[in-house]
Design goal:
Elements (H helix, E strand, L loop, with lengths): L5 H13 L12 H5 L5 E5 L5 E5 L4 E4 L13 E6 L6 H11 L10 E2 L10 E8 L2 E3 L4 E9 L3 E12 L2 E12 L4 E10 L2 E2 L4 E7 L6 E5 L4 E8 L2 E8 L7 E5 L9 E7 L5 E10 L8 H11 L4
Antiparallel strand pairs: 1-2, 2-3, 3-4, 4-5, 6-7, 6-13, 8-9, 9-10, 10-11, 11-12, 11-19, 13-18, 14-15, 15-16, 16-19, 17-18
Length: about 300
């Protein structure tokens, strides 16, 4: 179902993305000039194993596509930790491929030192079957719906066969200027039909208990705080509190990439869940403690 019409969607979105990035592609621009170019942005990145990346002035993320399907990654979301308010997605990819400059090192604007692998990363979803996570692999199709300075929205489509059934997820994602959390409406299907009352999860990796976690039932969030390369990183997922079935801490028990902080919930009659996910990074200076991160979530989640 989701694999049909992929090429046309890719071409249309690529055209939109290419016509929206000329300023951020100018690596010779000064930091002052780029600081005036605060914007939301998203694009398909075929040159990096079909990544799909999105950002605003505070945060940046990527999801993994078809070329990564044979690897460890699935539907998890990666954090690109930025500490400048201008777009960096195109700039980092360009520097990586044209200059051999790794975006896993901080060259003054931030870096990607956040490990995802087969985990949920920051805001990945999964089915919850037989008491365990069952992610739906990497995306199979994408589509950009809107791209302006203030807001970008797009869809990622996931599909995976599990125990003789075809599960699909249509994930509508939007990111707005000035917000650390991106917004998601996910619609799930089983064998082509809307999957009502389907047990699912949305969560964050704990990097096998390296992170400290906290949850707030009344506010509807589950958060983690971890020191990485000397700086604290807060990640979180948030849902409408009334939709929460339970908070689930999955311990790694010595198995690499198994540790998670999950919110368990069921899809509604339309097969949908809504949630937010994002991060705050100490090196970017706005969020410098776990207490500040929790306060941000209290004021910017679903229950305010």
């Amino acid at each position: 179902m989701f694999r049909t019409g992929v090429l046309s969607a890719l071409v249309a979105s690529l055209i939109i993305g290419c016509t929206s990035t000329s300023d951020s592609d100018n690596t010779g621009a000064t930091a002052a000039n780029q600081a005036d170019n605060r914007s939301t942005f998203a694009r398909y990145v075929p040159e990096r194993k079909d990544d799909f990346a999105w950002e605003n002035d505070l945060v940046a993320f990527r999801a993994y596509g078809p070329a990564a399907r044979s690897g460890a990654e699935n539907s998890g979301v990666d954090c690109w930790l930025k500490r400048v308010n201008y777009p960096i997605v195109n700039k980092w990819y360009k520097a990586h491929f044209e200059k051999g400059q790794s975006y896993h090192e901080d060259h003054g604007e931030g870096l990607d030192n956040y490990h995802v692998g087969p985990t949920a990363g920051c805001g990945g979803t999964s089915l919850w079957l037989n008491g365990k996570r069952e992610p739906l692999e990497t995306w199979v199709k994408w589509e950009i719906l809107e791209q302006t300075t203030a807001k970008t929205s797009f869809k990622l489509y996931y599909e995976h066969d599990i125990q003789g059934k075809t599960y699909q997820e249509e994930k509508l994602i939007s990111i707005e200027l000035g917000q650390r959390l991106f917004n998601v409406t996910s619609t799930f299907y089983v064998d082509g039909k809307v999957a009502a009352s389907l047990p699912v999860t949305v969560g964050i990796t704990t990097h096998d208990e390296k992170a400290t976690t906290a949850s707030n039932q009344a506010k509807g969030w589950f958060a983690a705080w971890e020191v990485m390369d000397g700086y604290g990183l807060g990640t979180a997922v948030a849902v409408e509190p009334s939709r929460i079935l339970s908070f689930k801490t999955v311990l790694s028990n010595g198995v690499y990439d198994q540790g998670h902080a999950l919110i368990l919930l069921e899809t509604d009659s339309k097969g949908q869940i809504e949630y937010k996910a994002g991060y705050g990074w100490e090196k970017a200076k706005d969020i410098v403690t776990f207490a500040q991160w929790q306060n941000y979530l209290n004021n910017n989640g679903f229950a305010k």
